[in-house]
């Protein structure tokens, strides 16, 4: 049996194209109402976005007028309703025109664990402001862009020029060039093969000269797994090698997007 995860656009939830010969013979295309037609009819479905990683690259500013002839600009970004600190580029000087600014390697990564937390009115907006880096960090212009289409086109890079508006006005003040990609989170199993560790410092507790190191793997904010102590190879501080002899530690990966591997050394008696 073959399973096709691609549902028909606009069809009722759970309906998909026929995926075998038997289904082809009995297949009847469903009639889907284009609009909500009262009691008993199918209501329009809300936008559904899966967890994943939103990658934003800020490339350049074009024809942005600063407060004086020398524009030293940086861009500040805010994704949806996120409460974390806003991301911003490094300050860059304009070219000889005094209005064009290029940013090199300015890439920001947003781990969207729960899209509903940053969604507002069934949409997720990327807000940005261009500042002139001076004594007061003057806001020159701003823009807002819905990234829902970007998040639905997984692994596809969207290259976009956005018009910038003057703060507190509808007049235009240049453009900003962005590249955006969304990578969906995958469900699976992570396995970490442990061999050895080198150059470990002494545990430092009570001036004891033996270490009992172990490896701790943290997935996101919740899941945390750890290895056993390499009891068969307890090493003194004079021996800088610690071995686990090919031990595996593993855990499931679902909505957690970041892994943090740390090595801890504990002193023993």
Could you write a compact summary of the structure shown?
The chain is mostly beta strands.
List its traits:
single chain; 269 residues; Immunoglobulin-like; 2 domains; 9-stranded antiparallel β-sheet; 3 helices; 6% helix; 44% strand; disordered N terminus
SSE map:
Blueprint lengths: L20 H6 L25 E11 L9 E8 L7 E2 L3 E2 L7 E12 L2 H4 L6 E8 L5 E9 L1 H5 L5 E9 L5 E13 L3 E10 L13 E9 L3 E4 L15 E12 L5 E9 L2
Antiparallel strand pairs: 1-5, 1-9, 2-3, 2-4, 2-6, 6-7, 7-8, 8-9, 10-13, 11-12, 11-14
Description:
- The chain is mainly beta.
- It has two domains: 133 residues, Immunoglobulin-like, CATH 2.60.40.150; 80 residues, no CATH class.
- It is 6% helix and 44% strand.
- The protein contains three helices and 14 strands.
- A hairpin with a 7-residue loop joins strand 2 and strand 3.
- The longest helix has 6 residues.
- The radius of gyration is 27 Å and the shape is elongated.
- The relative contact order is 0.14.
């Amino acid at each position: 049996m073959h399973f096709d995860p691609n549902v028909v656009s606009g069809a009722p939830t759970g309906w998909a194209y026929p995926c075998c010969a038997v289904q082809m013979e009995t297949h009847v295309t469903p009639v889907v109402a284009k609009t909500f037609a009262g009691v008993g009819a199918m209501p329009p479905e809300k936008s559904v976005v899966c967890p994943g990683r939103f990658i934003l690259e800020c490339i350049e500013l074009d024809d942005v007028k600063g407060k004086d002839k020398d524009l030293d600009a940086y861009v500040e970004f805010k994704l949806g309703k996120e409460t974390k600190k806003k991301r911003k580029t490094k300050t860059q000087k304009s070219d000889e025109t005094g209005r064009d600014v290029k940013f090199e390697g300015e890439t920001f990564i947003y781990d969207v664990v729960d899209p509903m937390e940053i969604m507002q009115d069934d949409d997720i907006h990327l807000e940005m402001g261009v500042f002139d880096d001076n004594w007061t960090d003057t806001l020159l212009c701003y823009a807002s862009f819905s990234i829902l289409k970007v998040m639905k086109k997984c692994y596809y890079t969207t290259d976009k020029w956005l018009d910038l508006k003057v703060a507190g006005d509808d007049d235009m003040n240049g453009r900003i060039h962005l590249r955006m990609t969304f990578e969906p989170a995958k469900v699976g199993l992570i396995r970490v093969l442990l061999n050895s560790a080198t150059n470990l410092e002494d545990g430092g507790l009570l001036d004891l000269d033996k270490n009992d190191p172990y490896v701790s793997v943290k997935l996101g904010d919740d899941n945390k797994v750890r290895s056993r102590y390499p009891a068969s190879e307890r090493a003194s501080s004079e021996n800088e090698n610690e071995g686990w002899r090919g031990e595996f530690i593993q855990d499931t990966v679902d909505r957690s997007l970041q892994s943090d591997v740390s090595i801890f050394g504990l002193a023993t008696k």
